[in-house]
Design goal:
The structure is a single chain. By secondary structure, the protein is mostly helical. It has 19 helices and no strands. It has one domain: Growth Hormone, Chain: A, CATH 1.20.1250. Pfam families: MFS_1 (PF07690). Its main location: membrane. It is found in: Membrane.
Length: about 450
Amino acid sequence: MAASLLPTRRWALVMLSCVEVLTATGVMFGWSSLSIALRREGTYAELCDDDRSGCDAQALRLNAVYTAGAFCVPLGGMIWGPLMDVKGAKWTRAVGMCVFSAGCLLFAFADSKTFDAYVPAACLVSIGGMANFLSHFVLAEYFADDHFGLVHSLINCSFDASTVTFTVLELIHREGASTQSLFLAMAALGLVYLALTNETVWAGHLSPPLKKLNTSSAVGGEGNEDGLVGAQSPQYGARLDESGKPFRRQVESRAFIALAVWGLFTVYRTMLVLGSVTEQMLYNADGRDASHAERLVRVFNFLILISVALTPSFGRFIDTHGMAAGLALVNALGVLTFGLLVTRPDWSLYVAFLAFGCFRAWNYSLMTAYSMGVFGGASFGKVYGIGVGTVSCLAAAAQYPTMAIVLGGSNPNFEGLDWAMLGVGVVMFGFPAFVHSRTVEGKETGAAAAAAANAA
């Protein structure tokens, strides 16, 4: 049934995936907006001497909730990735939606004074959302011969744009709704997505295609045994094709080690900005008053969504120009972000926010496309879930101690840390250089083999 589905129906499923990922996956990364609503309700205000103005103790406790939720996103990948390779995307999605809704219910009834369940609630929301996120990448296998990078970019950008979910909730909260009613609505939405997990809706597309799809000129050669772009594609090249190896051999390869190092430092920088943007606006550049900082945070949450509109063009960019060019562009955006976060003018911060939105969205697109394209669809769950998930857990676990060190000083600001992250970004240009060199080697090897075959 899936093989005969019309292209328009497949694209409709991609759009449905984007909606589901947007509203029920990485919502915890919109913490900066939700924390405003929680502060407004007085969550953890009892930790302050003056519970009307807030304090660093309240900020640290709220950040601990964010850190737990952020940590459980990659932890969820480590759990669901191997399970998805065995149980399939349909099972993973269904169970994940149950976990997501349970987390929303727990969040709805949590209270810092009488029932402090925010940390486990954040963990359940993140873990369940990660299952929903990973289950959608099977769709990319149906576009392996032409729009592989584009579909990966659309799904990933929807995940990144899921920060808008809490932005919308905060706006509704400002009009008088309680966080309890908002999270009850989120739980109901998760159950709606659970009900949609059926063949009538998905028409077999929650399972991988049964035959090779990569047969054509769009990627310049034959597909791998699992039907994905691989050895001859401009994105990866023959020297980066690891799809035919056992998982243990894959994780020992230079291609995987390079991905792990890249993932560790890009995810750390991403989580750092998402978790500290409110405090950075308060303390950086000689400090700002609370109302000014809150306004900048709202602009931040709006501008990082602009990457949604730009993502289709970036997907086509990596389909056309290759993985190395995409990695170099994304890394340059990361360097620009941290170079501008320490500045005073609002306009330069707006540029930083927009650059960060693209850096965050496009980086995750690159990592999933690289994981599936280089290592194959059959081990995508393990490579991305366990491999990238492990380093992402380390990056997430480092967030709370980072915040504690910075905020624990007599004159807290993030400028020194931001400059250090800029330096890390410069070093990270080594990954696109590695991918470029392996791609060139692969093309030269392929050309030599073709010439030898023609001569014979």
